[in-house]
Amino acid sequence: MEIGTPVPQVRFMTRVRDDSIEGPNPYRWEPKTSDDYFAGKRVLVFSLPGAFTPTCSTYQLPGFEEKYNHILELGIDEIYCMSVNDSFVMNKWAKDQCIERVKVIPDGNGEFTDGMGMLVDMTAVGFGKRSRRYAFVAKDGVVEKMFVEPESTEDNPDPYGETSPETVIAYLESK
What residue ranges of the chain have pLDDT lower than 50? Predict the structure, then answer.
């Protein structure tokens, strides 16, 4: 995905809490579009291979949650975490991680990730098609800056650094 390119236009299937629904699972389906997330805003999105995975759960998601207010002070309107996981998994992961500010986006079919050119085949480790670890800043749905981790190698199976909160903050502070 090149700078200046619009983000892919897709539909995301989300589950949202609805207090009018009784019982132990008061959630309903709510389709969202790329425009719902990106139109008229400057946003930061970080995408990762999977919810509940070690680097994502130990460093990346909690790091962006911790630095949320500082990132917003640097001109970002919203921070999103995306993964090729369904809404049930993404919501449960956010709850498990005590995430209150970063919003999760389920790209269950990998359509957005594929459109970004970041869908990778991880069948060798039992993941199927997943997202490469990347992040981007977009303004009104147009990519302003990309951060992409190097490809996995045997010596470094889960590269992490280019998409860390610290790297993204350094970029935002330089603008």
Answer: none
